[in-house]
Design goal:
alpha/beta, GMP Synthetase, Chain A, domain 3, eight-stranded mixed β-sheet, seven-stranded mixed β-sheet, 29 strands, globular
Length: 533
């Protein structure tokens, strides 16, 4: 069946498939199968339950949930009410939850106390009382623990199942202009910004990506491994549903469980990281360990796995580099599947929407650049955010006068109309007047047998800005700093050669919805301390 007609809002995405193919599977989780009709019915009942708790148009509902059916049910319920779903990472703890719940003014917080041995309610008990004052209730998915922290007893708690026992809601506040999603940016040095999207942008993007990726194919089934609290997990799941196809919700990131689910459900598409792919290929033997998977979109975080796409291809797994961010949504672009692997493995590609457009600007002169010239990427199209909720100044700074989002990413345009993501501008090193992607230095250093991982930052010195590298060593190895520097001199331009190389047990990291991110600011502070700056 062809994709549904363009949806004006998020609710219509669900309602049209519930009418056209009510018995088709929408969500698979454990032994449960939820049809489109079931998802529609439960979302209507949950919407009435939320309305009973005082949720209405514009109110915020914080979803602190793993990839379980309650997440999409509550999300569609929020869309029906014209409310805003606030994504909260399950890795977050008391300080982060307090900031998001308090600053967003959430009326409700939904959590799952029994999820993967995370004591959500004890974490909430540690949240400053002022941050919880606006909460009308906590929606509890699953069983509460037998003993509750005293600080929780004062808060109203409502079982999720009680919401589902309510009758269908009759009113409908879903609308194209209604705000519906808040994603948090992964701030490492300051409070995260709240990225606000409206229903029309979310719905249009889901349908346009579904068309671009041919998700209307009969065999389409995706595995939602990345968390729904991040745009990549969220957009993959909503795109699958927008195509009227089933999605397997994966709440565990354990590699053995992921491999088991792939074998059981035979998905056509996956999204993940280079590290996950490497572990899957190591775990599952054979020339074609995942024969059902047409392709896998992936993000490269580990410079030591720079050749993972070539390795995967020798075993029949096609990898494609996508591009996305909270401000423009995930899968904003993706590399064409017929592109040679050397290009296809890079982030970027062709924009998914026919109405989207990218350009690259020189960060110093402000002039627009042509093909093959690295500069700051700017994105436009129907998937862009409304702005940063509650932060007009940051919103104004994020947009150009003609409506493009300043991504803060280093990229370059290609002759075939695609673009290539090179690096975050904040990670780019300006050495001797040249923009240098640190990955180039890190990949070269990791060719040495003793080196397990590398991160490179720039540090101001009296003779100019210089590169400094931190390395993790393989078991039993020792750092020979002089040899690492000599190795760099043999293979890199002089201005790219690190001034110093330091060994470190692990890189400082901060959690984000799409995985742990290296705190490069902390590495820079460590380098300055070690070098007496």
């Amino acid at each position: 069946m062809p994709l549904a007609m363009p949806a004006a809002d998020v609710w219509i995405l669900l309602a049209e498939w519930a009418e056209q193919t009510p018995d088709a599977s929408a969500l698979l989780h454990g032994e449960r199968t939820i049809s489109f009709a079931d998802l529609y019915e439960q979302s209507l009942r949950a919407a009435q339950g939320l309305a009973d708790l005082g949720v209405g148009p514009g109110d915020r509902v914080a979803l602190w949930l793993p990839n379980i059916p309650a997440y999409p049910i509550l999300y569609f319920a929020c869309a029906r009410l014209g409310a805003i779903a606030v994504a909260v990472n399950t890795r977050y703890r008391a300080v982060e939850v307090a900031d998001i719940v308090g600053r967003s003014g959430a009326k409700l917080l939904a959590c799952a106390p029994g999820f993967r041995r995370i004591d959500f309610l004890s974490i909430v008990a540690e949240v400053a009382p002022a941050a919880l004052d606006r909460l009308a209730a906590i929606v509890v998915v699953g069983e509460e623990p037998a003993t509750l922290p005293p600080a929780i007893e004062r808060l109203r708690r409502v079982p999720f199942d009680r919401l589902l026992s309510r009758p269908r809601i009759g009113t409908n506040h879903a609308a194209a202009q209604a705000p519906c999603n808040i994603f948090t940016t992964s701030g490492t040095t300051s409070s995260p910004k709240f990225v606000l999207h409206r229903q029309g942008a979310i719905a249009a993007h889901a349908q346009q990506v579904a068309r671009a990726l041919a998700f209307d194919a009969p065999e389409t089934l995706t595995l939602s491994i990345l968390p729904l609290c991040g745009v990549f997990g969220f957009n993959q799941t909503l795109t699958t549903l927008a195509a009227g196809k089933p999605c397997v919700l994966v709440e565990s990131y354990e590699i053995e469980e992921i491999a088991r689910l792939i074998a059981q459900h035979r998905p056509s598409t996956l999204l993940g990281s280079d590290d996950m792919i490497a572990r899957l290929l190591e775990l599952v033997p054979g020339e074609r360990p995942f024969p059902s998977v047409k392709w896998m979109g992936y993000a490269g975080f580990n410079a030591a796995l720079e050749n993972i796409a070539e390795v995967a291809e020798t075993r029949g797994l096609i990898l494609r580099g996508p591009y996305g961010m909270s401000e423009v949504q995930a899968l904003y672009a993706i590399q064409p599947i017929d592109t040679p692997v050397a290009q296809r493995k890079k982030g970027g590609g062709i924009v998914s929407s026919p109405f989207a457009h990218v350009r690259v600007r020189d960060p110093e002169t402000g002039s627009l650049l042509g093909t093959g010239q690295p500069g700051v990427l700017e994105c436009a199209g129907p998937s862009v955010m409304v702005g940063y909720w509650g932060n007009e100044k940051a919103t104004a700074e994020a947009f150009t006068a003609d409506g493009y989002v300043r991504t803060g990413d280093l990229a370059q345009l290609e002759a075939d109309g695609s673009f290539t993501f090179l690096s975050r501008m904040g990670d780019v090193l300006r050495l001797s007047g040249f923009l240098v992607n640190p990955l180039e230095i890190e990949t070269h250093i990791q060719k040495l047998l003793a080196i397990a991982g590398c991160q490179t930052i720039a540090v101001p010195r009296p003779d100019g800005v210089r590169a400094v590298s931190f390395v993790m060593l393989k078991p039993g190895a020792a750092l020979d700093e002089a040899e690492v520097i000599a190795h760099c001199r043999r293979g890199l331009a002089n201005y790219k050669v690190p001034l110093r190389v330091f060994a470190i047990d692990d890189f400082p990291k901060t959690p984000s919805p799409n995985g742990l991110k290296i705190q490069r600011t902390k590495l820079r502070e460590m380098a300055e301390t070690l070098m007496g700056s």
